[in-house]
Amino acid sequence: MTLSAFVCGSATLLGGCLAISDAIAPKVTFKQPARSAEASALRSVIILADSAEVSQQMSMGLESEMSKLRVDERPYYTTAKLGQRITAQPSDAQLSAMARSAGVDAVVVVTGGGSSVTATQSTEDRYSCAVNVKLFKSCPKDQSRTTKMACTTTLGSAAARVRIVRAVDARSVFVDVVNGQAKHYRCNDQDIPQADRRQIAYDAVVSATTATMQILAPSYVQGPLDLMKADAGLPAEVLKRFDAASEFAKAKRLDEACSRFEELYTDYKESTALTFNVAFCHEVRGDMLRANQAYKRASELANAPDAQIDRRLTLTEKALRENPAVFMPANPNAAATQAPAGKVAASGNGRRVALVIGNARYQRSALVNPVNDARLVGERLKRIGFDVVTLENLDSARFGAATRDFGARAKGAEIALFYYAGHALQADGENFLMPVDNAKMRTMEDVRDGGGVQLAAVVAQLDVAAPAVKLLVVDACRDNPLPSANRSLAGGGLAPVKQPPEGGLIAFATAPGRTAEDGTGKNSVFSKHFADQLMVANQTVEQLFKRVRAAVKSETKNRQEPTEISSLVGDVVLATSK
Asked: What's one GO MF term for it (predicted)?
């Protein structure tokens, strides 16, 4: 038996080979998203606390941690300073006014702090032998002795109410009690100091401060390096470069390793190992959504059960369930302020983000073109300067996570653009975008209650994110995915949208109550012309959609007429001449 086989065979007592391999694998640093996406967008704050000792300790700890926090090797907070001690609970409006006066994004208020320390007695069994026993020999039963040893568990707890009020709209983006704990365990026969109750209480406060920071900002944790070995079928030169990238990772130069894996992946996208390793790089950077999508793609390429892929899929899916508003890195050089009305110009200097979704592989009533449409539109948006996330064939859980994540990415952006191609339905005047796991959706009630994504919810998330310009483009209503499906719904199409988002525009591939054509070629009629017009320089968004409407009407002989509803102020230009 080899040493590795012996270790893995013996590891069943410790929870299997995974526990052993994780323990000895090289460690890498994983970025963890902030638990509050809204709070994480606030980069300059004042910290207030009441007179409670724990509140004061936490506020000073927060100021210290914020001042030294670096994310992606850059300071995360531009301002983090302590304010005056408060004697009453100020209103949201008062705190917002205070933040605006100080020129910061928000006020963090820590109140009602308290701590406690408790001790619990227990015993542990100690085993001894009354006679000396040779190595590998067991003690005779009649010589075995068991004694009870007294032990003490000292547990410290600390808690305070944390409230975060945003300056721009006088709204509490987070309000909750945050807890921390510290533990000391000692048995009387152990050569360790007895518990210092005051130190344990302080350690619990530090734990509560750390928990608060994890709400406010991204953090980092250590985890095992978990890269996949190269596919056997890769060319020799590629294998050599693959191995070189792996060596950089083992040497804790993961940035260089990921850069090399991603360069190789550009030309070998059918490689399971490269797809997996690129996914791992996304995960390490805290980009759980892209990591999860890439792991799913690696699983498809493997075309067989794979424990390593399944392990990472489980971890990323758990992260998405627990914290859907996953942290996505913004362009650090981008302008973080909204452009004033009438000034959203063609300069392209502000941050522009886009979420592009194409759903085609439905469990019922699959479509042909949406994935092609999403890829085409996503590629064109990238070419004109957008930071684009393109996702395909989303089920209800991933669809919801994707839109919540987009809301987090859209904070502080100049332009946020949402594009969707796939099925959509209306129920009681509400428009629902359809995830691909629609097998059990047989009635409109199923759509409403069982996973359909409300277009209004996407609009609401963008309203909260408050980018300067909000653009939503819906290429849907292609047919009815419910039972007895046909090419047009009874009373078909989508419901009219009565009110566009403030500072925004919603465009539909066809008029309210009408259905859109899927197209006879690779792309839908609408997406083809929309993508073409995206590349036309120096036209406003309104001009763009007028030209799309004319082209679609002409090609469909007036059977399809795109529409839009707008509250834009000023000229918005997506593409500019070089």
From this structure: cysteine-type endopeptidase activity
Contact at 8 Å (CB) between 365 and 423? yes
Higher pLDDT, 330 or 182: 182
3-state per-residue secondary structure call for 47-74: EEECCCHHHHHHHHHHHHHHHHCEECCE
Same domain for 299 and 427, yes or no, is no
- Asked whether residue 419 falls in the same domain as residue 514, the answer is yes
Question: Burial letters for 463-482: b for 16+ Cβ neighbours within 10 Å, e otherwise?
Answer: ebbbbbbbbbbbbbbbbbbb
Q: Which residue bears the tokens 């596919």?
A: 231
Least confident window among 187-196, 324-333, 350-359, 398-407: 324-333
Q: Nearest Cα to 278, choosing from 297, 291, 267?
A: 291
Q: Residue 183: which domain range?
A: 30-126+145-221
pTM of the model: 0.53
Residue 139 lies in a domain: no
Structure tokens at 509: 């591939």
Residue pair 534/575 in contact (Cβ under 8 Å)? The answer is yes
Condensed to tens digits (0 to 9), the pLDDT of residues 237-254 reads 999 999 999 999 999 899
Nearest to 125 by CA among 143, 108, 149, 141: 149
CA distance 97 to 83: 14
| Burial of 400: CB neighbours in 10 Å, binned 0-12, 13-18, 19+ | middle
In total, how many domains does the chain have? 3
Q: How far apart are CA 113 and CA 93, in angstroms?
A: 23
Residue pointed to by tokens 């302590």: 82
| pLDDT score for 236 | 93
Beta strands at 44-49 and 106-129: parallel, antiparallel or unpaired: parallel
Condensed to tens digits (0 to 9), the pLDDT of residues 302-338 reads 988 889 999 999 888 888 776 655 434 333 333 333 3
Segment 275-288 mean pLDDT? 91
Token digits of residue 90: 């100020």
